[in-house]
């Protein structure tokens, strides 16, 4: 059984948001921390919810470091990697620190998706729980794209989504559907797969 890393308490924003030049090592440390972080019981509900989405936003950033897209599906160096949000945005201000950060030689952007055409510019798409009834339609729109799909809705990975956030004992965890990633043309690192619950569709 793999032992989990110790929880480290730190003040201020995660180090990878402060100094992106050293994101590689810091991203892995934050990823391990986020996987084991427990929300203190004494926090008010709103504070706990904000913390949850800060962790999920950190995961979205770090997923980029541990996933390879086909060369022709990423913009050239100096371009923009875009996270699109479909439906209601549950992150609120928790996702704002990601905007403008540098990763893989590109600038990170966050965009609210309002039309199917907006999806074409995205490398990552977060599909909100509010869109559960439209999930087959959204998957159809993304069928031929090389897009990382992420959500937090029950059964998302089993239905063909690539990464799905789940909660276990008040911890943020995630599921990965490796088959869905391969069909999309994405390569997920073994390090990331080791942290996930693997799901088949």
Structural write-up:
The two termini are 26 Å apart. The protein has helices at 15-18, 23-36, 45-65, 135-141, 178-184, 190-195, and strands at residues 67-68, 80-86, 102-103, 106-113, 124-127, 148-151, 163-168, 171-176, 187-188, 197-198. By secondary structure, the chain is of the alpha/beta class. The strands form 2 sheets. Strands 3-4-2-5-6-7-8-10 form an 8-stranded mixed sheet, sandwiched between helices. It is built from 6 helices and 10 strands. It has one domain: 3-Layer(aba) Sandwich (Rossmann fold). Helix 2 (23-36) packs across helix 3.
Could you give a short description of this structure?
By secondary structure, the chain is an alpha/beta fold. It has a single domain, classed as 3-Layer(aba) Sandwich (Rossmann fold).
| Sheet having the most strands | 8 strands, mixed
Total DSSP helices: 6
Shape label: globular
Radius of gyration: 16 Å
Strand order of the largest sheet: 3-4-2-5-6-7-8-10
The tally of domains stands at 1
CATH topology: Rossmann fold
Strand fraction band? 15-25%
Mean pLDDT: 84
Low-pLDDT runs of 5+ residues are 1-23, 35-44
- The CATH class is Alpha Beta
How many beta-strand elements? 10
Based on secondary structure, the structural category is alpha/beta
Topology order in helix (H) and strand (E) letters: HHHEEEEEHEEEHEHE
Secondary-structure arrangement, i.e. CATH architecture: 3-Layer(aba) Sandwich
Head-to-tail CA distance between termini? 26 Å
Helix content: 25-40%
